[in-house]
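Why should sequence recovery work at all? Because a backbone constrains its sequence more than one might expect. Tight turns favour small or flexible residues, buried strands favour hydrophobic ones, and helices have their own preferences. The token representation captures these environments compactly. In the example below, the structure is given first.
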């Protein structure tokens, strides 16, 4: 990443968000009083999937999890530094005294508080690469302008306008139809098209296959394995990868993330595994749980009948659907 450009961008955004608190229209007096007292803002991100495509990193991989960690650390450091700079210029928020900031506790250090409260059960990589001690000292001297700084929103509409992937979402489909007042438009993943053209595979047959399989590459045999993995869509990626990336991202965020969970073949066991993993990784919340309808899944599944084609090194894999009731098998879910 271009660290200097990131610093300038985040600094500008934090100043803008702080200005909004003062010039905003408040229909409710309590909301106005609360905002002026605590001055919370929620800077987020979008285009995470685009970054992975540019870096040639599959979403379902340890490298993507590591990138989620390091990129969010950089954004968090810039955001908290910008809020401290605003405090030096305009003064800290009025309820700063006694806060975690005032006590020298930074967001990633609250994992220790959570672990102590639970009596354990918080398992997440806590590595850091930036000079957080320097920032802590600056906050101690100048304070913070904003009680909260970071929150990742869905960004579905504004990401569409900007032309990047939404929020921290994986690609939902490599090909889809977008509708607006001007009509309907077929939209295809531009990174995928560029790769297919580079390999001489972008032709009418490929377009027809992408349309038939809704942009899913898993059943298009002529597509090389590396491209299938790189352009795996949301329902092909094991949901544990989404949770792992979010867990590494969460430690830097003082609020929370709108994290959608995609499970093609939802089952009681898979839900239990996924949400327990989210709890162990210290996630504060998740967003929607999305699954495929039976009519859609029939057309798009791979030969093995599973859409979660990208395996995970963490968590258990998708369990097989029992063909009959196994009353003597405690792992059978037919009767649950």
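From this structural description, the recovered sequence reads:
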């Amino acid at each position: 990443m271009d660290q200097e450009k990131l610093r300038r961008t985040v600094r500008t955004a934090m100043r803008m968000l702080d200005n909004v608190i003062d010039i905003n229209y408040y229909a409710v007096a309590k909301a106005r009083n609360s905002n002026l007292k605590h001055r919370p803002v929620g800077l987020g991100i979008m285009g995470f999937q685009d970054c992975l495509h540019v870096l040639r990193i599959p979403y379902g991989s340890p490298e993507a999890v590591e990138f989620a960690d390091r990129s969010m650390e950089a954004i968090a450091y810039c955001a908290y530094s910008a809020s401290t700079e605003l405090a030096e210029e305009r003064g800290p928020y009025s309820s700063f005294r006694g806060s975690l900031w005032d006590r020298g506790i930074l967001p990633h250090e609250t994992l220790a508080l959570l672990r102590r409260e639970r009596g354990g059960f918080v398992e997440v990589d806590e590595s850091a690469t930036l000079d957080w001690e320097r920032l802590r000292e600056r906050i101690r001297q100048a304070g913070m302008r904003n009680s909260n700084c970071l929150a990742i929103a869905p960004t579905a509409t504004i990401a569409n306008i900007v032309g990047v992937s939404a929020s921290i979402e994986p690609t939902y489909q490599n090909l889809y139809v977008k509708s607006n007042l001007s009509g309907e438009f077929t939209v295809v993943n531009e990174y995928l098209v560029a790769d297919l053209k580079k390999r001489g595979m972008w032709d009418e047959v490929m377009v027809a296959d992408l349309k038939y399989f809704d942009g899913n590459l898993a059943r298009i045999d002529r597509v090389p394995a590396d491209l299938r993995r790189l352009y795996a869509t949301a329902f092909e990626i094991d949901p544990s990868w989404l949770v792992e990336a979010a867990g590494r991202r969460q430690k830097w965020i003082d609020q929370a993330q709108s994290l959608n969970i995609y499970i093609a073949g939802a089952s009681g066991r898979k839900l239990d595994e996924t949400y327990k993993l989210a709890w162990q990784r210290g996630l504060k919340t998740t967003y929607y749980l999305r699954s495929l309808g039976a009519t859609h899944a029939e057309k798009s599944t791979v030969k093995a009948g599973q859409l979660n084609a990208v395996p995970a090194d963490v968590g258990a894999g998708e369990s097989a659907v029992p063909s009959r009731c196994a009353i003597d098998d405690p792992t059978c879910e037919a009767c649950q």
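A few observations help interpret the result. The two ends are 48 Å apart (CA to CA).
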